[in-house]
Amino acid sequence: MAEVFDKIVRQGKFVLGDHVERFEKEFAVFQKVKHCVSVGNGHDALWIALKTYGIGKGDEVIVPSHTCQATWLAVVNTGARPVPVEVDPFNYLINPELIERSLSPKTKAIVPVHLYGHPCAMDNIVAIAKNHNLKVIEDNAQAHGAIYKSKQTGSWGDCNATSFYPTKNLGALGDGGAILTNNKKIADQARAIRNYGSVKKDIHTVQGINSRLDELQAALLSIKLKRLKSWNDQRIQNAKIYCKLLPNVGDLQLPPQPSASVKPVFHQFVIQTRSRNELRKYLAKKGIETAIHYPMPVHQQKAYDFLKYKKGSLPIAERLSETILSLPVWPGMKFDEIEFVSDEIQTFFRR
Q: Which of 51, 68, 69, 144 maximizes the CB count within 10 A of its CB?
């Protein structure tokens, strides 16, 4: 890796060079799509994807009620309005059965989020979109390599937007993102928008932004991409161990496990319990770090007051914010470490 970085520094080309082009081709192959356009971060990837389909002021976009606020923010920043649909409280993903009741003549797209590494029911979502002439823009930031019915997440919709933030399954050493699609026109538009609206120097066809993956991050991602399947396999194995060690413990609800048709990659291992806060404090005292994704629903954040949602508007999202807890599941965890976490959780509930 050091040799690659030294070579980039000596060459002096740090933006939109050979390493970026190489990674884009490699990641497109990995995702089984034709085009990959790298950008500066996951938010920009989603924002640019929405812009390439002309989504903006006066439009509405279906989003999940429980997600990282960046999903909603990208929609808001186009000028469109995010319309939240409640998620399934078991797998945390947008509930396809509730989507159609939230559609209106202003709806232009659906943004399913493959949250915590779990794949959305994309066949149902795509069918709804086709029936109503809507675009499907997958938010695949947390599910690199996940499979739904023999197809990778990120290859079902009209395009997908992803992030390479350091904590992702495929993470850089800083921010990074990409848009992936089979549509060459959309890919070309995205390339222009990411680079001040230009694909040819000093010629600007649209009003774009500056959002480009740099050569150093692209080189690192190419190296890490070769290890992604192995890392995902380790995450899946860690999740299986947790589920074997934590059956029928208190009111603990464990996340869904892989099946013949659904293969999550466990970006996070998310449990639910009404004793979430007490359990987290107890585990912290034992030296076990946990996280809450996400402690306040997006619709209750002050930044989204203008949408006029009140407490109780999205009860499932609100309940999840009070009960979910992410346990460590990173690649490289040893069995005895997972066993230690599990033993302490059992001890807590026995108390």
A: 144
